[in-house]
Design a protein that fits this description.
Length: about 280
């Protein structure tokens, strides 16, 4: 019989946030897989846990997952922890979990802290439906494409960001999503200097433009408000009318995209097709 892979959520800052079940699980397994053993050692020493630890950093998950799976298949049970929060959510573990499932190894979540849930719940924005983006691409066309993809969504948007890129991200969000969307920046959650700043995107972009930002950051942005997304026929009609007036396609597609709730890249592609007929 194979062992069990336990996915154990650990505190995102305050060490008191660990659950009793998480502690029991960490004490009962044969070994513990850590994103960074040096980081996790602080928590284990606090809890009095001395189990064997194995490193599984994100950059080496594909190479190191095999040996862990061999031990699980052989009957050993282990816990997977990351530096903070729930494993496999914008942290190492996704590959290990997928391969464990494929091999018939039981995977058991031991839920607990998650920065995205903590930020969303206290943001003051709608929580009934949300879209989690993890970490945005660092820049370039991929980053812009992702923002344009989610711009039409009515669900609240949640993502993680580096403090060094926060100002640039807020400015770009204001440009792509609209500066008047409500948003919240959650910083250093559960820690001594926990901070929530709530404002419009343009207000937040101004606030953080020249600010030094430290610590972990979660950004929460309200979804698109207003009328429902236009149909393709409506977008085509708007493009045809603008092209007939002699408007430049690039500017026209951006204007139609904002009104229609479509990504501008999709509208531009449709405009190119119309011009080529």
């Amino acid at each position: 019989m194979p062992g069990t892979l336990f996915l154990v959520a650990t505190p995102i800052g305050n060490l008191q946030d660990i659950t009793a079940r998480a502690v029991d699980t960490l004490r009962s397994v044969s070994f513990i897989v850590c994103e960074d053993t040096r980081h996790s050692r602080v928590l284990f020493e606090h809890l009095g846990i001395s189990a064997e630890t194995v490193s599984l950093p994100a950059f080496a998950e594909g190479q190191r997952a095999g040996r862990i799976l061999e031990r699980l298949v052989a009957g050993e049970s282990c816990a997977l922890v990351t530096d903070a929060g729930s494993p496999a959510i914008s942290d190492p573990g996704e590959t290990l979990v997928a391969e464990a499932v494929a091999r018939g190894v039981p995977v058991v979540p031991v839920p607990g802290p998650a920065a995205l849930v903590a930020a969303l719940s206290a943001s003051g924005l709608p929580t009934g439906r949300f879209h989690f983006l993890g970490f945005l691409p660092r820049g370039g066309p991929e980053r812009r494409a992702m923002l344009e993809e989610v711009a039409p969504l009515s669900a609240t948007l949640v993502f993680y960001e580096s403090p060094r890129r926060l100002a640039d991200t807020l400015s770009e969000l204001a440009q792509v999503l609209g500066g008047q969307r409500r948003a919240a920046v959650a910083r250093e959650l559960t820690k001594r200097y926990e901070e929530f700043v709530r404002d419009t995107l343009v207000g937040l972009a101004t606030r953080y433009a020249n600010a030094e930002v430290l610590g972990e950051v979660v950004v929460v942005v309200e979804g698109r408000r207003g009328e429902a997304r236009w149909t393709e026929g409506e977008v085509r009609s708007a493009l045809e009318a603008g092209l007939a007036r002699g408007e430049r396609l690039k500017l026209l597609s951006n204007e139609v995209a904002r009104a229609a709730g479509w990504p501008s890249a999709e509208v531009y592609k449709l405009g190119v097709q119309l011009k080529g007929r």
